[in-house]
Amino acid sequence: MADNQLVEINGNDVDEDEALRIAIALSLGEDPAKPNKVHGDAFDPSQDDTASDNSELFITSPPEPAPPPPAPSSSSLSTFGLDRKKMEQERLARLNKRKASELSPSAASDPDSRLTQRQKIGGFGVLLPSGGAGAATVSSKLPLRETPASKPTHTKPPVASEPVNVPIESNLPFPRGVVKRTWAPSQPRLGDDIKIEEVLQKNKLKLAVLSSYQWDEEWMLSKIDLTRTKMVLIAFAVDEKQKKEMIGNVPQDKIRFCFPKMLAQGNMHSKLQLLKYDSYLRIVVPTGNMIAYDWGETGSMENMVFIIDLPKFETLEQSEAQELPVFGEDLLYFLTAQGLDGKLIDSLRKYDFSETSRYGFVHSIAGSHCSGDAWKRTGYCSLGRSVRALGLASDGITEMDIVCASIGAVNNSLLRALYYACQGDSGMKEYESRTAGSKAKGVTGADGDMDTLKSHVRVYFPSQETVAQSRGGKNAGGTICFTSRWWNAPTFPHEVLVDYQATRKGMLVHSKAIFVRSQGVTARLGFAYVGSANLSESAWGRLVKDRGTGTPKMTCRNWECGVLILADEGKNGRTALNETELRKGAASQTSSLRIFEGRVPIPMELPGTPFSNSSRMPWFYQDG
InterPro entries from the xrefs (predicted)? Predict the structure, then answer.
């Protein structure tokens, strides 16, 4: 389609670059006879009224990246930004056609029909490929069609997760932060969900910094008005050639890229949005990607979203006097590591981060980290660091419920690392347990420790039956990833895996969350992690000793990020839990998880059924 448009414009007297300029001008409502030269100062999202003299703004990546794995290439370039009106008309036409087809059960069950639509989703090809090795395999199973709606069967309406103690005079939607579910067309709106349109607010959006693992370009552009919004996309590219193609394929005065460094094996899996408006900054950490499927529009998948709105300081003096909370420090540390332009990062200091002091920002930075305290600041060490910074560290019994959409080659070592991190450990306790066993002074033997740990840890993942009986059926399970090879490994902790049903009947859950309830010496605590990290070593990293220096080294293969959220606060800022409930472990999981009501939606029905007590098998997406 785009090629035909360019052929019509590109006559004998007009070269290809000029044809592209004309097409962009027409799509943006500009006069094609008046070319707009795009200099380095044409795009400076750090300030609305100050130009940048950096001609390569945001089209950079950290130095000396390791070559990423090969990924499927596309034979056609994207039409990004070339004909927005026509793209919107085509999108609406497809939407109407899809709605009409939903009236026919036979059409919805036609595998050939579903296959045709699945082939349209994938990644961005040359413009925005999915974020790493294996992405094409996963995305190839995504359906676009909604399955017929089923009536909701809530026995008790979920409590809306609204911000607490919001000042009446505040003009910010979420000044103290909130966690929502993604909207679903088949579900009643009870105040605990949100649409992508409500997150982005396209009519007011000035700048959008977006990162994702999977992208749907056309869908994304339908949610953003390029005539008023500048975009920075933190994305994955196979190599330098593809970077240049992606950069050259968009209007440079509207869209720029940031390409984080990648290891040979790993994914750009973090999902983060920085949204600038006239008077505030919105920080968004979703568990889903920039595709309609993950934002509920097909009606078969649910995700979660953390949102907080930060007001803009009125004076430069206020901005300069601000001492960033740990959340802000870790956010800027992560963005710097990704290679985002320094001026844009510095511009975030214009906003008041004080309300983020009740949250932690947790991340994994792809690469090996051993210099100074770098190993302490990422991977599961970052999780432990945030737990300590929020005053949540505990040496008592800890209940941990993990919700994930993908499971890697999990073993006891990874479970211990996460368990100790949720107690506030730096990462060294698991390392010493792994390397020295019971001989390590003050460290419980690894084998005996796991018996206790497994009685207090549950990992929620759907069975083959759960996926098959969902609204989207097996075709909806393409991003729910686990393999029989890992399940059958003798090192896999089968006892902790639990089958579950979503609280929204018939939906699958792509959310990534950890619900933690701990009892310390002087306080009883509860908090949750919500973010992009699944249960895998690629996501959370592994701590080893560097052979050259003998110092600890944290290695992560993926880029990930998430937020720590305190449970609903009781007296003295602590959440009171019943000690007996904690000691009962799984038997009291329903009652102990109630502390998150109003703060973090619980996506699964409780209690789940352990696979070790059932004939059911986990969902293996490659066998589906």
Answer: PLipase_D/transphosphatidylase, Tdp1
